[in-house]
Amino acid sequence: xxxxxxxHYFRMLRGFTQKYxxxxxxxxxxxxDVRIAQYEKGTRSPKEKYLxxxxxxxxxxxxxxxxxxxxxxxxxxxxxxxxxxxxxxxxGEIDGELCLRLDKSTGxxxxxxxxxxxxxFQQEQKLQSGEITKDQYDHWRYTYPQMEVEQATLxxxxxxxxxxx
Length: 165
What we know:
The chain is mainly α. The protein is globular and about 55 Å long. A two-stranded antiparallel sheet has the order 1-2. The protein has 9 helices and 2 strands; from the N terminus they run ααααααββααα. The longest helix is centred in the last third of the chain and has 22 residues, at 108-129. α2 (18-24) crosses α3 and α7 packs antiparallel against α8.
């Protein structure tokens, strides 16, 4: 999904008009909706400062907006091929179903990426068990890694407080 589509998706999710979002970015009344329409159509790309501001206004990570082009199955396949080359992603089969896995021989990248994927797995399990709502799950995904950093900091403070007592 291209950046313009992501901006549109999150704008609609928040219930913002193009004009409102453009004004929040600091554009004039006459340019606000035009500029957002240009971003969403892909005729113009937001500069980094606007990308970061959009992410903040839409309450998502800038990474949630700036994603690789996976609009087509071919584009997705090439993204997966790149991940195989750069991150050790491998395709396999378990019980007759295709699956993706990480190759442990990729070293430290494996450990860090495994930890990230495991965090995702834990959140998905919480969603499946009813421990969190779909909105909470989506919030975790769209603000990742911010939520993980905040949760780790909170956990560390709790452990420090327990050790003091």
